[in-house]
Structures are given as structure tokens and as C-alpha cells.
Amino acid sequence: STASDGALSPEALVEACAARGLTHMALTDHDTVAGVERARVAGERHGVVVLPATELSCQWRGINIHVVGLLPSGAQGELASGLERQAEARERRAMQIAERMERVGLEDALARAREEVGSDRPLGRPDFARALVAAELVPDMATAFRRHLGNGKAGDIKAHWPSLATVVAWVLDAGGVAALAHPLRYGLTRRKRGQLLDDFHAAGGQAAE
To answer: Band of the pLDDT at 121, cuts 50, 70, 90?
Structure first.
């Protein structure tokens, strides 16, 4: 949702789910649960049960990986303090991405990305991608990621993220279920993807998308 780098507000997202006949959903914003309460209230209006959740950024062997935490009891314990550190890391990361996007021609990159967001939430790579499109430096979001923001590109900053095992431990400490997000999207070979799944399982991970 717009609590992180989505296009719809928490309320609009719940409404869209209800319109499609869903009775349960999890709101998995990146490194935050800021939209969960708004989604829960909207869910009560629309007959949708909203499960608290988040999608956590982390590192595995130098690769940016995401772990979904499904949180029946909400964010608590180590996860709650971890999310605070993630927000700080996102702010530092946004400044580094902005510097690198300015080198490829996006003037005042931080301000341009902030204009695309329209709020003070932490900026993510999609926000810079939208700014690149708006500045007509790339034709679309996919090209922005392929040239500048995807894994291994200039805007792929991951030095601030904790390890895969750390974020799985946060989720388990909160009484949640840890799920590996979109494992087919990391550009890994079949062998390396298997190693990722093995390490995720060894850390306590319980599911994969």
C-alpha cells in the first residue's frame, strides 16, 4: 500500500480485495506495519479479515532478499525494534540511491522521488523508478529497474540490510510465520535458489511464495 511503495492506500487496497470476493488478506508493506491498523478498520467495513504482516528486506550472500512475516499477534519484541532500524536504513539507502540516480541524469533525485510519493514515508526503489519515468529518462518502470535499479545495478543498495537469518528470527520472536518472498525473481540459478531455500529453512523459515 502507500504505507510503503504501493499505489493504493490501505483502505483502497482492502476495498479492491473485497470487490474481488476475498475474505482474508495480509497487508505486506516493505519494512513497516504502518498501514495495518487502517487496513484492519477498513476490513471491518468491507467484511475482510486483515492479517498483520510486513515484507522485510535482508541480505543473503550479497543478494537483496525479501522475507514476508505473517504476524497474527502483530509486530512485537525484536521485530518491533528491528522495524525501527529498517526505517532508518531505508532513509540512508534513499539518500545513496538518489546520489547514484543523479549520476545517470535525474536532477534533484531525492526531491523528485519525494514528489512522486506525496508523503513523508521512507522512499524505495519503485519511487525512484517512477521519478525516472516522469523525467522521461526511461520509458517505463521495467526499464528503470533493468537499467538502473534492479539487482546488481547502480541503485541496488543493500549494505544496510540485516542478514536473512536475522529477519527470520525477528518474525519468529513475534510469534509469526516467515515466508520467502518471490524466490523466482532474484535471478538465481536453480542450484543457488536451492541453497537459498536450504538456508532459509535452516534459519527457521516456514514457507515460500
So the answer is: confident
φ and ψ at residue 92, rounded to 5 degrees: -65, -40
Q: Please give the share of the chain, as a percent, with pLDDT higher than 90.
A: 80
d(CA 90, CA 29): 13
Burial status of residue 155 (CB atoms within 10 A of its CB: 0-12, 13-18, 19 or more): buried
- φ, ψ at 83 (rounded to 5°): -65, -35
Beta bridge partners of 64: 59
DSSP of 93-141, one letter per residue? Answer: HHHHHHHHHHHTT-TTHHHHHHHHH-SSSPP-HHHHHHHHHHTTSSSSH
**Strand order in 207-208's β-sheet?**
24-27, 49-60, 63-70, 177-180, 207-208
Q: How many Cα atoms within 13 Å fall on the side-chain side of residue 37?
A: 2
C-alpha cell at 83: 522495524
pLDDT tens string 78-96 = 999 999 998 888 888 899 9
Please tell me which residue, 133 or 161, carries the higher pLDDT value: 133
Q: Count of alpha carbons within 13 Å of 11, Cβ hemisphere only?
A: 4
Closest to 117 in 3D by CA, of 90, 137, 145: 90
Instruction: Give the three-class secondary structure for 177.
Output: strand
